[in-house]
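Team,

Forwarding the record for the chain on the shared tracking sheet. I've put the sequence and predicted structure together so nobody has to dig through attachments.
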Amino acid sequence: MKSVWRQPLFLLGFGIISFFLVGSFVYEWIFGNVPKQTFFIEENGRAVEGPPISPKWMHPLGTDQFGYDMFGKIMIGAKYTILAAMAVAALRMLIAIPLGFALGTYLQRQRSWINGLIDPIHYVPMTIFAVILLTPVLWMPQEGFSTTLTERLVIQVVIMAIMTVPIVAALIGNETNLLYHQEYILAARTLGASRRRLIIRHLFPQMREKMLVLYGQQVVESLIVFAHLGMLQLFLGGTDVDYDPMFADPPRSISYEWAGLFGNSFRYLQGAPWLPLGPAISFALVILAIAAMIEGYTRATNGQVTLPKRKRMAFVSEETVDWNQQQLREKMILLQKEARR
């Protein structure tokens, strides 16, 4: 694991994730709320632009249609988006790992038809399942939510984690079944090792690195599903819906999570492209960062550490150099004399 911190790709990805997470807490601690600029920008006493304001020095990602700074909204919403995706992936792995080991160890004879039942799920987009299961939870009814924000977040995390547990468990079960044909597993079974001991002492240590890579892949998949749900107006933690028949506002996210920012601003892609591009670029950066961490971790576990080691340099005095040269001359003279004899 120490070699991971010498991998440039892993450090790059870790730095991007740390920037968004640490920056989100620090930004909210310093500024509290998102800055808002409702007045027109004036030059020489003349109004030139109003919300949505294009990117300027004070607003590097511009402002939305209400004057709120997009950079501030992205920074505050970063912790909700990234931590929710990590929680979904972590819960998914916690459930799928025991099921996968049980499938590959105790259900080897039934594994073929169980995989036959799970394989069709690969061809159905997870967003469809998410929309069907999460719409009653996230879409605010006319009388308002009956649950709190925390309860809706927990329900969404649990549902999104359970959706793909069968697929992940099948992958782990297939890998477990392959390991049972290795010589050291056969030797351990011959010596009388129980299945439980095989899982704890042999299978889990052998598959630990692959499961860490699989966890990173599940985080990326969760982020992609969040983005798809945002396009369908199902935001993390709930969608605030205005039922005013005359002057209803569009659905909005309760928090500033990126899926909500992207879904709310996508209709401004033509007139104010900086509104949807900000959260979209943030999604892309985090996904690329996780992919870089996975690649760096894979290279480190395979022994490919690319950062050069610092070379040790020895400094010697001029007297030592002269003495060595004198000794070399004397040896050359002796060799010449012996050659003449």
